[in-house]
Each structure stands twice: as C-alpha cells, then as structure tokens.
Amino acid sequence: VRTIKVGYLMLHKCKYFEPAQQWSATILEADEHPSVVKSTIRDLCKQPVLIRAAGGIYNYLYQLRPSSDEPGQMKTEGSSILGKFQITWRTNLGEPGRLQTQNIHSTPTPSKDVDLRAVKIPPVIFLERPFMVNLCLTNQTEKTVGPFEVFLAPSVSGEQKTVLVNGLQKLVLPLVEAFESINFDLSMVATQLGVQKISGITLYAVQERKHYEPLPDIEIFVDAE
Asked: Where is the Trafficking protein particle complex subunit 13 middle domain positioned along the sequence (predicted)?
C-alpha cells in the first residue's frame, strides 16, 4: 500500500503503477470491481479524487501476480523489483505536479531449492487397504539436485500414526534436473476408520545429508468395505 501526503488540495489526480516485467498488477478499489492495470494513462485517469489540504491522505492498494507460471521465468536479474509508482495532479489553481518513486523492492523471503507437494489422493480410501498418494518433487534451482529419499517421519508427540507407509519404508528418488519435476507414488495404508491425517512425509537429500520440512498434514476419510 502506498500512502501519498500533500499539503494542499489536489484535483484531477491520475495514479499509475508500472509493474516490473515479471509481474502483472491489479488495482483494488472498494467502489468498483478490480481492474487490471493497463499501459495507457488515459485508462487509469477516471473520476478526480479530492485530497483534503493540511495532511490529507489517499491510499492505493495493488495486487501483484507473477506474469508467467514457468519457474524459469522468475529467475531474472533484479527479480526483487516490483515496479514504480507515479502520480500526476493539478491543484485547484490549475498548477500541474508529478511524483515518481524509485524502484519498489519486495521484502526478501527465503526460497526453497526443492518443493514437495501432494498432487492426487484417492477419493475413496478403505480400512487396511493399500492406496497410492501421488507426489510431485520440483527442483527450483539452476543445478541438478539429488538423489533423495522419501519416508514417514515419526510423530513428534510420540502418538501412534494411523496412516502408515505400505511396504518399503524409504522410497529412493533419482537426480532431478534444473527446474524440472518428477511425479511418483507412495503406497500407504490406513489403520483406523473415520477422518485421519497423513502426516510426516519427509524428503531427505542423500548427498547433502539434509532433511527438509515435512509435508503439511493431509486429511483423509477412511471407510469400511
């Protein structure tokens, strides 16, 4: 959210946020449906907005989304840059004004080198009958990573798990090329009826001897045959 403060009345105000190449921007306003920010100033200059003199404030809220779903597209130099914000106006005496910010940067957030997520779970799961959980492992770096092991970590609280791995307790995964993904199935079995949780699915990098954070718990419903 950008806040603009002025010391005098402003009329015929035009706001414009120019997103960086890897982002698309949507302006969010309470009095109208969200509209995608376009490149022409004319489309953005709608009804004049009055800002009260002596410290009046007007807020802008923009929603940014990646302009491409391809992981490789986000790996660009200066990818922390969100864009620039500019505003033009005329005072009640007709005097023009213009303000443009420097590049606005996002807050740095740690990025994961690999991402493990559940893709598909059977809609019907029966008690003590093996079922497959389809998982996807994505390499989010520009280098080859792996090999990996996938296993079910023990419960931190010491409680007995009600959904277990069926068969081999560790699943070995091959090397994953840069920005590539592999899909695989993990055979599991439920030991109790009703709503249960698949918890503790963990990824381990063999060469680096590194454990990744377990997958978030997945709720399932176990039925009798």
From this structure: 8-104
